[in-house]
Amino acid sequence: DNALESDTMLDWTVACNLSTVCAAVPVPASVLVPRGFGSLLVAGRHLGIDHDVASLVRMKRDMHRCGESAGILAALAIQHGCQPLDVPYAEIRSLLLATGCLNPAHDGGLRFDDRERRETVILITDLDALREALASDKPGIALFSCRQNRSEIIRAVLHQWLAVPDPLLSGNSALALGLQGDPACLPVLRRIIRERDSFYYKDCRRTNQLRSAIAIYLAGKLGDIAVLPLLKTILCDQAEYERPLYHEIRETSYKFNPTQNFNLVYFQIVSHAAMAVRRIGERQPELRERSRQILREAFASDRHIRLTTTMPPGTYEYAQMDNIRQAVLADLP
After folding, report:
1. 3-class DSSP state of 111
2. Beta pairing partners, 210
3. Fewer CB near the last or first residue (10 Å), C or N of the chain?
4. Confidence band of 132 (pLDDT split at 50, 70, 90)
């Protein structure tokens, strides 16, 4: 249910399709000391962090290292007769380096690290390299580069590439402009949504994103008024589920597996459409009530849940669409 994530996470995992990129993040000693305490240390999955980085505290070996660091810090604090945060860092560092707990080689930044792809994520600044990446089925790093670099030069070339006949370059340039908040992307985004574009990207070894889902997310984020009728059709038209998109995806990342009893394609499109309608209502006050009416009609029953899965309440499959429905209904007056 990534449609419920923050804008930062949605930009990263959905729009840039970089969900399987590994991130190496330093854990400062101050994170181990709970707010309001001085001599208490926590470690591992007891760390207090926000939802966006929660996945960083789930890997067992990293949590072992975190526990070892806390233990060494506690021992040194007792030896020095001081608070943990007053222990000289150089002394802590030397001990952690000696045991191998701290290994500079682990400071890899952002990188793909699996059998299919091993490379560091480096922002693309060269325009030729940017064009090449945006003309491919793995544009994630290029999209992220455009999100981070919103210079006039980058924006100008994206506008040029938006008009080229190459569907990959044109479509990906639209996504890049969407990440920059540029409404020039909207005609292309609307076309992608209208056609129920079934193309999906290949940046990751799994959980790759459908171009339609990305377009829906970005159009909603930009508060596009013109896309609202398309979103209403997705959410409220009884015939929507019969479209080939939801049943004929042949690529493995989004293939509907009947034995799994969960139509992931339908779930992604509907969940992002629902959140996009809500975002448009938030961005456009004059459309707030219309957006609410669409959502009331769409989720008045559990129809979308039953089209996604036949599993009963209490199961993971049922909970996915039910989470979306409950989030929508909770926001309605």
Report:
1. strand
2. 200
3. C
4. very high
Rounded CA-CA distance 331/82 in Å is 49
Domain coordinates in residue numbering, the chain:
2-16+119-330, 25-107
Q: How far apart are CA 285 and CA 232, in angstroms?
A: 18
What is each CA distance from 72 to 55, 67, 82, in whole angstroms?
25, 9, 14
Interatomic CA distance for residues 160 and 187, integer angstroms: 14
Distance CA 53, CA 136 (A): 29
Domain 2-16+119-330, CATH among 1.10.10, 1.20.120, 1.25.10, 2.20.28? 1.25.10
Half-sphere exposure of 277 (CA within 13 A, CB side): 31
Bridge partners of residue 92, in order along the sequence: none
Phi, psi of 56 (to 5 degrees): -75, -15
One DSSP character per residue, 233-269 reads: HHHH-TTGGGSGGGT---SGGG---GGGT--HHHHHH
The DSSP letter of residue 311 is P
Residues 44-63: tens digit of each pLDDT: 878 878 888 877 777 888 88
Q: Which amino acid is at 228?
A: L
CA dist., res. 25 & res. 48, Å (int): 15
Cα radius of gyration rounded to whole Å, the chain: 23
Cβ burial of 142 (10 Å; 0-12, 13-18, 19+) is: buried
